[in-house]
């Protein structure tokens, strides 16, 4: 009974179908174009009546194995079978057929097969890959299907393209895989012998000598000691021959192949040609000279006797006991103090390098590497007599003309020039105030500035102009090195020049027969001489020793009374104390003590006085760019707060070239700074504007006096210092006494 046409039931099979194409009837099979329409499915890829689907890969029962695709589950898994095939050889008399062994590889991921024949030496036939990797079809009439894993087993024949292969065995992985698949393996079979291979093996065995060759393996020695060379310093005494002399040699021993080479040390002006090598690299025989040998006479293997026919069937005996062997020098023969024979020349080994010492210490345990002295001590080189100075040019220039045929300019101390030359704001120039030592009343009042340049030890003297003095100021002495007085002019030795150690406050200088007395120095000079006391101070090492020697013999209870007496008399404190202690110090050392141990307090400076001085300098330079400076300050003030830092203000001052000294600028900026160290630039520019807000005139003799409080604080500071020194000196009296004895 037919089913009723209920909802959801339909006889139309095309419902839900998406493919309606017709399969093509033409394709390539083994590279040949042919019509394969009968094997193609029908409309939409559905099989026609009577057709069966061609399997693309090996099929396994559903539910067994992994669900992953074959190219993932069997990746890098290959079955390997041992096989052979017979090949007829009708052209040769020695053989009728040939047995060729091969390997069959079956790739499980895509059922492809590859056949490879191992290459044999001197086979004369092309070997290697016989069948490249691809899917191999079954023999006809089933050539539409391909080989799969079920077609393989041991001890059975398999046909690939009309060539029959006999599978004899397989590897352990293949055996385990087939057993797990349920394949019943047949016991392995043996491969038949190849007649021609057996014949060739017999021939090769007959060609081998009864006593095999001695194996000489030099590769290991080369790999272990490649580029390792022992270096020896040698000596050859050739004074017995005519016109012979002593030779210095350098011997190189190459550990890679036990060879030697020798170089000769050719000294300058020795009269000998600089040949490339004294001895070429090679093995050095111990007993030389020896008779010359014909080419091929000396080989690695020595033949003692030859008998029998020449060629096949002859026999020869090798010298395995080393009956005839030539001895060569080895590394064990080279020792310091030893003598080696270099082709009839006695060469003495005198010394070696550090690598050679370490090699012999580690290999042979040698510890004594005392070098052998082979050179006589040369007499001291006589000093070159330099002719006296002629008076033309400088002494250095005249000396350079005597040192060579081609005169060269004198060399300067370039390192000192680079270290002591001007670096930024550091001038490296010592400035002293000096007066002329003379009986002339006019010259006594003249003031000079002496410049000492540390870069080249040159001196320049300038005289500042003084009003109504009658003397024109300016350059008094051109910059250059100045000789010390009391030296002979025409002499062979170099003259002594004034150095930094000769310049200090209180020193007397005779500059070109004109005496000067150094009275004072600037702040940079004092600071530099204190920081570099070992370079410029003339009594740096004995100063504190003398000072401690005098203090050890003083009664320190009298120091407060001396301070009070010195204060009442209005004298300088440390000068009075040094005078009481009878310590002979120079003026510069006294100033240094005062700078080191005095309490320096800057007195409060009046703002009106500083503004008056600043306006006076601006008025003299006719500086009126205050409006432009307001714009520059406003531009830099990003927050429009009316305040800027002192560093930014100084940059603007440099941009407008404000004609005020650095000290005066710092004093003004400190007066207008607030708690955050910023200045009110509107108030600052308004106060220094001499056009709108003029300040009262400044008198020439206005000075800032130190208050009594500052003097009393200085006294208290000095008293505290002396009490500290008293405690230290009492504990270390022995040390100070030794230091005083040294001076």
How is this structure best described in words?
There is one protein chain. The chain has 743 residues and is α+β, with helices and mostly antiparallel strands. Helices cover 28% and strands 20% of the residues. The chain is built from 21 helices and 24 strands. The strands form 6 sheets. A 6-stranded antiparallel β-sheet has the order 6-5-4-3-8-7. It has a 6-stranded antiparallel β-sheet with strand order 12-11-10-9-16-15, with helices on one face. The chain has a 6-stranded antiparallel β-sheet with strand order 20-19-18-17-22-21.
Care to give the gist of this entry?
28% of the residues lie in helices and 20% in strands.
The total count of helices amounts to: 21
What level of helicity do the residues show?
A: 25-40%
Q: What's the arrangement of strands in the largest beta sheet?
A: 6-5-4-3-8-7
Query: What is the radius of gyration?
Result: 55 Å
What's the total number of strands? 24
Poorly predicted sequence stretches spanning 5 or more consecutive residues: 59-63, 559-572, 702-743
Q: Largest beta sheet, briefly?
A: 6 strands, antiparallel
Structural class, from helix and strand content? alpha+beta
- Beta-strand portion reads 15-25%
Summed over residues and divided by their number, the pLDDT gives a mean of 79
- Give the N-to-C terminal Cα separation: 144 Å
Query: Which shape, going by the Cα principal axes?
Result: flat
Subcellular location: Cytoplasm, Cytoskeleton, Cilium axoneme
Keywords: Cell projection, Cytoplasm, Cytoskeleton, Repeat
Organism: Cyprinus carpio
GO biological process, one term: regulation of neuron projection development
């Amino acid at each position: 009974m037919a089913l009723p046409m209920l909802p959801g039931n339909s006889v139309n099979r095309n419902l839900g179908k998406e493919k309606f194409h017709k399969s093509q009837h033409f394709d390539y099979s083994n590279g040949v174009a042919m019509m394969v329409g009968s094997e193609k499915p029908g409309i939409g890829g559905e099989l026609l009546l009577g057709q069966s689907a061609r399997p693309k890969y090996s099929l396994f029962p559903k539910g067994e194995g992994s669900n992953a695709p074959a190219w993932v589950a069997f990746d890098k898994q290959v079955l390997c079978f041992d096989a052979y095939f017979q090949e007829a050889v009708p052209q040769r008399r020695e053989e009728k057929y040939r047995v060729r062994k091969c390997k069959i590889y079956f790739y499980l991921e895509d059922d492809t097969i590859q056949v490879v024949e191992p290459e044999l030496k001197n086979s004369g036939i092309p070997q290697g890959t016989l069948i490249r990797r691809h899917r191999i079809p079954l023999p006809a009439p089933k050539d539409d299907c391909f080989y799969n894993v079920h077609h393989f087993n041991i001890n059975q024949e398999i046909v690939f393209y009309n060539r029959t292969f006999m599978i004899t065995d397989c590897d352990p992985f293949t055996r385990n895989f087939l057993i797990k698949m349920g394949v019943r393996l047949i016991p392995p079979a043996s491969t038949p012998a190849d007649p021609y291979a057996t014949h060739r093996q017999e021939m090769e065995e007959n060609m081998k000598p009864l006593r095999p060759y001695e194996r000489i393996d030099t590769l290991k020695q080369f790999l272990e000691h490649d580029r390792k060379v022992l270096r020896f310093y040698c000596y050859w005494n050739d004074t017995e021959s005519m016109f012979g002399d002593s030779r210095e040699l350098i011997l190189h021993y190459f550990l890679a192949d036990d060879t030697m080479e020798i170089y000769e040390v050719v000294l300058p002006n020795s009269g000998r040609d600089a040949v490339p090598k004294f001895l070429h690299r090679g093995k050095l025989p111990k007993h030389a000279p020896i008779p010359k040998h014909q080419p091929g006479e000396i080989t690695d293997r020595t033949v003692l006797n030859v008998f029998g026919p020449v060629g096949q069937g002859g026999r020869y005996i090798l010298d395995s006991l080393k009956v005839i062997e030539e001895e060569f020098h080895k590394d064990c023969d080279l020792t310091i103090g030893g003598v080696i024979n270099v082709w009839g020349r006695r060469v003495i080994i005198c010394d070696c390098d550090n690598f050679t010492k370490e090699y012999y210490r580690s290999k042979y345990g040698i510890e004594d590497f005392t070098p052998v002295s082979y050179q006589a001590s040369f007499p001291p080189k006589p000093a070159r007599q330099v002719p006296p100075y002629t008076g033309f040019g400088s002494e250095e220039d005249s000396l350079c003309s005597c040192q060579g045929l081609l005169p060269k300019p004198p060399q300067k101390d370039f390192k000192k020039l680079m270290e002591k030359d001007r670096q930024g704001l550091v001038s490296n120039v010592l400035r002293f105030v000096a007066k002329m030592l003379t009986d002339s009343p006019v010259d006594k009042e003249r003031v000079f500035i002496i410049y000492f340049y540390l870069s080249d030890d040159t001196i320049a003297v300038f005289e500042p102009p003084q009003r109504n003095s009658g003397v024109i100021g300016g350059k008094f002495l051109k910059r250059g090195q100045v000789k010390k007085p009391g030296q002979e002019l025409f002499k062979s030795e170099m003259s002594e020049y004034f150095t930094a150690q000769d310049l200090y406050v209180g020193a007397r200088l005779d500059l070109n027969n004109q005496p000067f007395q150094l009275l004072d120095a600037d702040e940079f000079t004092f600071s530099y001489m204190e920081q570099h006391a070992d370079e410029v101070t003339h009594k740096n090492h004995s100063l504190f020793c003398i000072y401690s020697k005098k203090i050890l013999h003083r009664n320190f209870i009298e120091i407060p009374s001396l301070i009070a007496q010195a204060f009442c008399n209005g004298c300088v404190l440390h000068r009075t104390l040094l005078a009481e202690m009878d310590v002979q110090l120079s003026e510069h050392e006294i100033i240094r003590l005062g700078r080191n141990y005095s309490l320096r307090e800057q007195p409060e400076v009046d703002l009106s006085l500083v503004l008056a001085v600043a306006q006076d300098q601006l008025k003299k330079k006719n500086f009126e760019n205050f409006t432009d400076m307001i714009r520059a300050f406003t531009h830099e003030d990003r927050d429009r707060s009316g305040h800027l830092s002192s560093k930014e203000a100084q940059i603007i001052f440099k941009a407008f070239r404000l004609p005020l000294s650095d000290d005066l600028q710092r004093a003004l900026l400190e007066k207008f700074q607030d708690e955050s160290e910023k200045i009110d630039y509107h108030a600052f520019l308004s106060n220094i504007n001499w056009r709108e807000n003029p300040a009262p005139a400044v008198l020439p003799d206005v000075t800032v006096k130190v208050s009594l409080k500052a003097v009393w604080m200085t006294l208290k500071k000095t008293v505290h210092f002396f009490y500290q020194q008293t405690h230290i000196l009492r504990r270390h009296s022995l040390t100070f006494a030794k230091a005083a004895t040294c001076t």
